[in-house]
Design a protein that fits this description.
The protein is an alpha/beta fold. It is built from 11 helices and 13 strands. Strands 5-4-3-2-12-1-13 form a 7-stranded mixed sheet. Strands 6-7-8-9-11-10 form a 6-stranded mixed sheet. The chain is globular, with a radius of gyration of 21 Å.
C-alpha cells in the first residue's frame, strides 16, 4: 500500500542503484566467512521439556539483499547455517532494502537452500512492506518458509507416549503498526513455552508484559552499524530500536536478543559491528539441574570476525567516537563514494572513446 512507503523512496532507490554500480570496485566480492560473528546464545527456557533440550535455532536477520550483501555472500552465509545442522531457522525480516525485483530470483533461490531439521519460520520487517509484502510472502512460501507474522507455529516432540511442544509466535512490523499481539495471544496454545519473533526489538516491552514468552528474537537495528568499543552498545538508534539496539537484555521475565544482522542499509560501513549469524541453544531447567555438578554453560559464546576491515582507519575510528562528528563522517564517506563513481564514469567514457 502506498501509505506504507517512506517519503523519498524513489530517491533511495536511485542511490541504491548508483552504489550497486560501484560495488565490485570498493567491496571484495569473494565470500569470506571470517568477516562474520558467529554468536551462540544459550537460553534457559522455563518449562521447556527435556525433549527440547539443546534445541538449536539459527537466526538470520536484515539481509538487505542487493546492497552490501550479494547473492554470492548470501549463499556463503546459508552454507554456514546449514553446517550448524539447525533444528529450526528463524528469519526476522528486511530481506531487501528499496529494490526487490532486481534480486527477487536470487532471494528465492538462496532461501530455498536453507535446510533445517524441522522448519524455517519468518516475519516481515518494514522494508518488506515498502517493497510489497505480498511479493515477499510469495518468495518466502516458494522457498519453503512459513510466514508467521501475527501467527503461531507449534513444534511437537514425542517420546514414550509423551508429547511435548514448543510454540513459536511472530508479529508483523511494529514500525508500520502492523503488529497484532491480540491475535497472536488468541492463537497461542496454553501448553508449552513460547518464543516470539519480532523484527523490531522494542516490541519486547509488549511481548514481555504478556508473561507468556521466554525469549524474543529481533533485528532491525543492525547494531547501529557502529558499536562503541568496550561498551558493546551503540549511539546510533533508530525507530523501534531505541531501548534494545544490540545484544541480550532482560525484559521482565523474558530474554530479548537483538542481532546485528547481515546486511547494511544505504551506507555500507560497519565499525566494530561485524555482520552476525546467531545460534540459539534452548536449555531445559530439568536437564540443567541434573548437570549442576558439571561446569556451568557459558551464556553467550562469540566466534568473532577476524578480517581486517578496509575502513575505517584508526584516525577515522577515533573521530567517529565523537558524537558531534558523526554527521561529518558520513558526509565525507558519501563524498568519497561520489568521487569514486565519477572516476568510474569517466573511465567508462574513455574506454568507449
Amino acid at each position: 500500500m502506498e501509505e506504507d512507503k517512506p517519503t523519498g523512496l524513489a530517491a533511495r532507490q536511485i542511490i541504491q542503484k548508483a552504489m550497486t554500480i560501484t560495488r565490485e570496485k570498493i567491496i571484495p566480492m569473494e565470500f569470506d566467512e571470517s568477516i562474520y560473528d558467529i554468536v551462540e546464545v544459550n537460553v534457559e527456557i522455563k518449562d521447556l521439556d527435556p525433549m527440547f533440550h539443546d534445541y538449536k535455532i539459527v537466526n538470520l536477520s536484515d539481509l538487505h539483499l542487493g546492497q552490501w550483501l550479494t547473492a554470492e555472500y548470501l549463499e556463503g552465509v546459508i552454507n554456514i547455517v546449514n553446517k550448524q545442522k539447525p533444528d529450526m531457522i528463524a528469519l526476522t525480516g528486511d530481506y531487501v532494502s528499496y529494490i526487490l525485483e532486481d534480486v527477487a530470483d536470487d532471494l528465492q533461490r538462496c532461501l530455498s537452500m536453507l535446510k533445517p531439521k524441522d522448519v524455517s519460520l519468518a516475519v516481515l520487517g518494514n522494508h518488506d512492506h515498502w517493497n510489497g509484502a505480498d511479493r515477499i510472502r510469495e518468495i518466502l512460501k516458494n522457498s519453503g518458509i512459513i510466514d508467521i507474522s501475527n501467527d503461531v507455529y507449534t513444534i511437537k516432540r514425542k517420546r514414550n507416549n509423551k508429547t511435548a511442544q514448543l510454540n513459536i509466535a511472530g508479529v508483523d512490523s511494529m514500525m508500520l503498526q502492523k503488529e497484532d499481539i491480540n491475535t497472536v495471544m488468541e492463537k497461542l496454545p496454553n501448553e508449552g513455552p513460547a518464543i516470539m519473533l519480532a523484527h523490531e526489538p522494542d516490541f519486547a516491552d509488549i511481548s514481555a508484559l504478556t508473561g507468556r514468552f521466554a525469549l524474543q528474537i529481533s533485528g532491525h537495528s543492525h547494531g547501529g552499524q557502529f558499536i562503541i568499543p568496550g561498551l558493546n552498545t551503540t549511539i546510533l538508534r533508530g525507530s523501534c530500536s531505541h531501548k534494545y539496539p544490540v545484544g541480550e537484555y532482560q525484559v521482565g521475565d523474558m530474554i530479548q536478543y537483538t542481532s546485528k544482522g547481515l546486511g547494511t542499509n544505504i551506507f555500507w560501513l560497519r565499525i566494530n559491528c561485524a555482520p552476525e549469524i546467531t545460534i540459539f541453544k534452548l536449555k531445559s531447567p530439568e536437564i540443567l539441574k541434573k548437570e549442576k555438578h558439571n561446569k556451568p554453560h557459558k551464556k553467550i559464546i562469540v566466534k568473532h570476525s577476524n578480517q581486517m576491515k578496509p575502513f575505517p582507519t584508526r584516525k577515522e575510528l577515533n573521530k567517529f567516537l565523537n558524537i558531534d562528528d558523526i554527521e561529518n563522517f558520513i558526509e565525507e564517506k558519501t563524498k568519497e563514494l561520489k568521487e569514486k563513481m565519477s572516476i568510474n564514469e569517466n573511465k567508462s567514457k574513455n574506454d568507449k572513446d
